[in-house]
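Minutes, structural biology subgroup

Action item carried over from last meeting: produce the structure token record for Transposase (Shimia marina). EB confirmed the sequence was re-checked against the source entry. Recorded below for completeness.
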Amino acid sequence: MTTLTAGKNTVTFKSFGVDLAADLYLPEGFDPAKTYKTIVGASPFPQVKDQIPATYGPEMAARGFIYLGFDYLGMGMSPALPGEFKQSRYMFRLIENTWDAVSYLGTLPFVEEIHGLGVCQGGSIIASAAVTDHRIKKIAMVSGMMAADAFQWSDREMANQQIAAANASMQKMYETGAPDYVAPFGLNDEMSREEFIGAGGNPMAGESYDYYGRDGVKGPVAVPTYTNMHIGDQGMQSLISIGEAYADKIVQPSLVIYSASAFTAICSTQFIEKLTNEYEELAFDEFSHVDFYYKPEAVKASTDAVAAFFNA
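Output recorded by EB:
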């Protein structure tokens, strides 16, 4: 094994037979002879490890934890499978990648116990993975999109339009053998903030652009491995919420952190209503959904709460 030191360490682990690119964040004073509580991270759609994981990894390491952030299959620096295309972030594979990340952490002698921390779509990934992976001892979800039914299916006509577009994209790619890249949220890598907000239809346009846009703090210019363009058949899986459907089967103690003022709050509150396990709920009025991605006050509030919960 490569010598590991405090801070960020570049590692890989196997999933679907290929090496996924990962960063392992170790706490200050790291001693491989000791054991540490460890976190497997799950990021928002369609992020890479240099976004949320690069923010939460150092924060959790500063609180004494080991944190693993990684690029899912076909994302960032992780390869796609032979004959497949990049930017193909499918829910079922995200869950299996997470299971393999847990297996990788289980091989490290300094890992004491493993917890899961997901942000936005990552919350759904962690919740879904934890249903049948009890190697994950506790889970925390920040601005989590676990209860997607009310959020994504409230307008059935729009959902069916998404499905039709995704079906057509899948057929096109099968017939041509070429990728069909689209901008899932209407934001491409060249748009200005004014153009994106002016396009309308996105109540989170401003804060989303400030993070993901061309000029955003973690957009395609700031993070070269990131793009707002994504494979066109994504909707066929993103419209299925496993975490919500199996919420009553989750046995691990759970922490749900969200913005009470965000229109995505229902994705957390309706998930909480379905839980039958031990859980804690922490709602903030002063932060938005995206604030928890990178704004110092919001990140501190969430990571402090997560550290206390995992240490309890």
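Discussion: The chain has a mean pLDDT of 95.
Next step: EB to file the record with the rest of the batch.
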